[in-house]
Amino acid sequence: MTLSQTLSIAILIGMMALFIWGRFRYDVTAIISLLAALLVGIVAPADAFKGLSDDIVVIVGSALVISAAVQRSGVVERALRRVGRRVTRVRSQLLVLAGSVGVASAIVKNIGALAMLMPASLQMAKKNDVSPSVFLMPMSFAALLGGLMTLVGTSPNIIVSRAREQMTGEPFGMFDYTPVGFCLFVAGLIYLRFAYRLIPRDRRAAATMGEALDITGYVTEVVVPTGSPAVGDTVQAFLDRHDGEVTMTQLLRAGMRSAPLPDTELREDDTLILGGQPDALERVIASDRLVYEGEEREKSQERREKEQGGTTGEIGVIEAVVNMGSRLEGQTAGGLNLQRMFGVNLIAISRRGERLSRRLANTILREGDVVVLQGALDTMPDRLRELGCLPLAERDLRLGSKRATWLPISILAVAMFLTAMGWVPVAVAFFAAAAMVMATGAISPREAYDNVEWPILIMLGALIPVSDSLRTTGASDVIATGLAQVATTLPAWGAVALILAAAMAVTPFLNNAATVLVMAPIAAQFAGDLGYRPEAFLMATAVGAGCDFLTPIGHQCNTLVLGPGGYRFGDYARLGAPLSALVLLLGTPLILFFWPLA
């Protein structure tokens, strides 16, 4: 073994030790490893930053944007409500989520299936007041297992199919992987159903400053437009349809105020005073296509500004506190004519210890009230200063914005179809999908960038050249030669098990495609030396390369859930090591049963 090969392996071992120690954040550890590799010369300066342009970085970043747009659409939330009424226990919900993502991964790329269903897990966790970490890592592992079932589920299957074609003239077909993959998927689901408790319960994504705000709920004023699903509902039916997430304190019709009696039927142009948490209000208003009071006036103002050659900039909402001495203190929004005088629209109010029922325009504001103001974001700081309001810490608040319902799902479906058919590379398809959801307004650029886990992308960009040093220094060839020597002394089933175990051990450091490229020739050599057919050895290579349950860096799915789940490096092995052993113990006899050696 040469000095460069020894240094490459030593740096990888040191990197793993730092990850497990946890003294530094994962992206800092990756940067330290890259600097060390540069210092000892196993990574050339010209190759130091090639990882930032790698397909994996593009896929993970794009998937985070697409996932945020899917969550923003509300489609998943509606499906979740139907499931949530029937499945209420956490472990049953985990089984539904993991099973769904696994089945979807057999049809489309597993990273796409996970990105599509992650919003459901986040909403379900929030509704049950549990950490999303309970669902996300099991879903990632289920996505990896589901990808084993078909040719298009994961990249190693496609590469192994080509390797078989080169050796025998016949590739693996679409469902040749299904018998082994399906059995492992079912066994994995059963394991995850009970073993999810191995995940530490205190794992949560880093809290934002906005989440520290103790705001009990808002009151907002909306109008029922023509064609709204709320038209014809009774008040009680309206509240029941939205699972009691909001309250209705007043109903105004033709200028007359009335109490919202349960059997009162809602009509077009009714004005409703609704109360609830911001996300609940947003869901109700979006799903029933309700219109904020004053929204039409705002649109007219925008049209006038455009006709005069002005621009309104990006429209958004800001939470602010009415400060002592504010212009709003002791005044009403209607009396101040906020839209005409200041270019902002008051769309919600929160007041501690009091349930507001008056129209927003007629509510006398007090010091300490929390208000939601809508307007052009580029001018909002000046407007808040003029009004004497203090902006609150930034948080994910979307009151007053519109949702694109099926558009993000449609864009993601097209991207996954194109990749499944092999017409477009995964990175290109996902990058284009992320661009489309922003260009079509399904998610604003500001929200898109906010939802990208930049430390994860930095970690990947730094680790790729470090991991690639195994190949460039020839260390992977040395490891492969050693495995070949060991395998010749083993029985056939032992050689298959060794290939499976070696592929599972290597894939965290080489990406799964590179693992197959390294291991497939070794598998073929085993088969030839022992006088057996190659299918069992190639299948073991595909299964092992597709099953990284030990680290967050070996597969994009594991990396995708690292930030939202708030996991640490060692958490993956806690849940994943027994699953890896299960795959090894079951996978070897399953492969030999469905793919005989003779």
Describe this structure in words.
This protein is α+β, with helices and mostly antiparallel strands. The chain folds into four domains: about 5-20 and about 470-595, no CATH class; about 55-205 and about 410-450, no CATH class; about 210-300, Regulator of K+ conductance, C-terminal domain (Alpha-Beta Plaits); about 315-390, Alpha-Beta Plaits (2-Layer Sandwich), CATH 3.30.70. The chain contains 25 helices and nine strands. It has helices at about 5-20, 25-40, 55-75, 75-85, 90-105, 110-130, 135-145, 155-170, 180-195, 235-240, 280-285, 295-305, 335, 340, 380-385, 405-420, 425-440, 445-450, 455-470, 475-485, 490-505, 510-530, 535-545, 555-565, 570-595; strands spanning about 220-225, 245-255, 255-260, 270-275, 290, 315-320, 345-350, 370-375, 390. Strands 1, 2, 3, 4, 5, 6, 7, 8 and 9 form a nine-stranded antiparallel β-sheet that branches. The chain is elongated, with a radius of gyration of 28 Å. Residues about 295-300 and about 305-310 have low confidence and may be disordered. It is a multi-pass membrane protein.
